[in-house]
Automatic annotation (TrEMBL):
It is a multi-pass membrane protein. The keyword Transmembrane applies. Keywords: Membrane, Sugar transport, Symport, Transmembrane, Transmembrane helix, Transport. It is found in: Membrane. NCBIfam families: SP (TIGR00879). Its main location: membrane. This is Sugar transport protein 10-like. Pfam families: Sugar_tr. GO terms for molecular function: monosaccharide transmembrane transporter activity; symporter activity. Gene3D superfamilies: MFS general substrate transporter like domains. It comes from Cucumis melo. GO terms for cellular component: membrane.
Length: 518
């Protein structure tokens, strides 16, 4: 189903618009919101593998790690309090994203980004100055609130600002910022771990203030999206904004569509009750299933705990932080690949290819760890070749994730929801994501302890499952204007029956129901 195939009068031109610098700069600034999330994902794993940090806050883990030097390698970091330090953030983000969806709807996307940046800033200051576990965890909770607000508003903001042709690429700007955040965090950890007096972890945690300031200042200068201005009732201002971001004088067609979508959305008092209706079933299912699967690819195991994982597998201190830097860099590069390909090859192709790649490399990693450590977890990497092969396999896996489930897990749910349920859909997406991030973050070190190398097979099984799901249940959404997304669902073999006839905009309603659009 080509982009212009079903556009109403005007021959499909009114959707295009020139891609102008204004839009690109706006979207880059907004995507900074991803930096705070990424920095945080990357920093916590490195800090929790630093000895001074463990000594000061988690002495029991420190002793446990020292003990394990000869024995069972799988269990040396197994502590619920330590994982709570990492995962308390995601619990807070979960709760915050519900409040954020109300703020985003009532006060605009921009307000949510501002709030997020400020709260995050306070959290990072508390963390850097922490003197006890309580201060650390309160700081983490505030960081979580910041992340919840940013992750709720930024993807929606980007989807609304971007012209359909490059929506995928601009939206992945958010994922790109996350991966850059992770890489910067890995580098910072590598640097601060060299500090002799052992206050390096303070610097690591306090530097989170930098992306927070960037985001807050950026959000302060950002314009609001036309959709958001309309949602709050200012027609003329919204039209001017649309002209500005499309770089065209005549935006009547697209503007009319926005107004219609907005009128429909205004009738909806309760987006939460609303998204439960049968006609939104495809969106509801996708907004729940995609973030759930995204976490069960096992990626966060690698990002959070990369240094801890490498240390468990017997890399030395510096080596394990360095390896995390390497997998972080691969992550950034592979995300660039998806920016280039997502609007060309489409979402579905990337999902299927990335899935296959992750499956193969996970099975291989699991088998190598099995061969080296066996079931009882005794043994060590003989350095050199074996460790290099393992690192290479993990990089292949990270690359597969970074051009499929990574960016698309945020892009697809944000582009498939019609305006009236968009903030609810995005809040569900973020909260399901955070919930499973929390669960896996909390359980991972214990799972590694009990399931051993089988953990990698466990994730590989889920990767196989989700790839099959995408194949059957996700239609291709590239180049489809957001307002016209319902046609795609209507044409789908399974979801078509949920979409009522009147939900499909435009003159060509009577498409053959099982047409080529699947």
């Amino acid at each position: 189903m080509a982009g212009g195939g079903f556009v109403s009068q005007g021959g499909g031109t009114h959707h295009e618009g020139n891609v102008n610098t204004f839009v690109i700069i706006t979207c880059l600034v907004a995507a900074m919101g991803g930096l705070i999330f990424g920095y945080d994902l990357g920093i916590s794993g490195g800090v929790t593998s630093m000895e001074h940090f463990l000594k000061q806050f988690f002495p029991s883990v420190y002793e446990q790690e020292a003990k394990a030097s000869g024995g069972n390698q799988y269990c040396k970091f197994d502590s619920q309090l330590l994982t709570l330090f990492t995962s308390s953030l995601y619990l807070a983000a979960l709760v915050a994203s519900f409040f954020a969806s109300i703020v985003t709807r009532a006060f605009g996307r921009k307000m949510s980004m501002l709030t997020g940046g400020l709260v995050f800033l306070v959290g990072s200051i508390l963390n850097g100055a922490a003197v006890n576990v309580e201060m650390l965890i309160i700081g983490r909770l505030l960081l979580g609130v910041g992340v919840g607000f940013a992750n709720q508003s930024v993807p929606v903001y980007l989807s609304e600002m971007a012209p359909p042709k490059i929506r995928g690429a601009l939206n992945i700007g958010f994922q790109m910022a996350i991966t850059i955040g992770i890489l910067v965090a890995n580098l910072v950890n590598y640097g601060t771990a060299q500090i002799k007096d052992g206050w390096g972890w303070r610097l690591s945690l306090a530097l989170a203030a930098v992306p927070a300031i960037m985001m807050t200042v950026g959000a302060f200068f950002l314009p609001d999206t036309p959709n958001s201005i309309l949602e709050r009732g200012d027609m003329e201002k919204a039209r001017q904004m649309l002209k500005k971001i499309r770089g065209l004088e005549n935006v009547d067609g697209e503007f009319q569509e926005l107004v219609d979508a907005c009128e429909a959305a205004k009738k909806v008092q309760h987006p939460w009750k609303n998204i439960m209706q049968p006609r939104y079933r495809p969106q509801l299912v996708i907004c729940c299933v995609i973030p759930f699967f995204q976490q069960l690819t096992g990626i966060n195991v690698i990002t959070f705990y990369a240094p801890v994982l490498y240390k468990t597998l017997g890399f030395g201190d510096s080596a394990s932080l360095m390896s995390a830097v390497i997998s972080g860099a691969v992550n950034v590069l592979a995300t660039i690949v998806s920016i280039v390909t997502v609007d060309k090859f489409g979402r579905k192709f990337l999902f299927l290819e990335g899935g296959a790649q992750m499956f193969i490399s996970q099975v291989a990693v699991g088998s190598m760890i099995w061969k080296t450590f066996g079931v009882n977890g005794e043994g060590s990497m003989s350095g050199g070749v074996e460790a290099d092969i393992l690192l290479a396999l993990i990089c292949v896996y990270v690359a597969g994730f970074a051009w499929s489930w990574g960016p698309l897990g945020w892009l697809v749910p944000s582009e498939i929801c019609p305006l009236e349920i968009r903030s609810a859909g995005q809040a569900i997406n973020v909260s399901v994501n955070m919930l499973w991030t929390f669960v896996i973050g909390q359980l991972f070190l214990s799972m590694l302890c009990h399931m051993k190398f089988g953990l990698f097979y466990f994730f590989a099984g889920f990767v196989a499952l989700m790839t099959i799901f995408i194949y059957w249940f996700l239609p291709e959404t590239k180049n489809v204007p957001i307002e016209e997304m319902n046609r795609v669902w209507k044409a789908h073999w399974f979801w078509g029956k949920f979409i009522p006839e009147d939900a499909v905009i435009g003159p060509h309603v009577s498409m053959e129901p099982f047409g080529k659009g699947v």
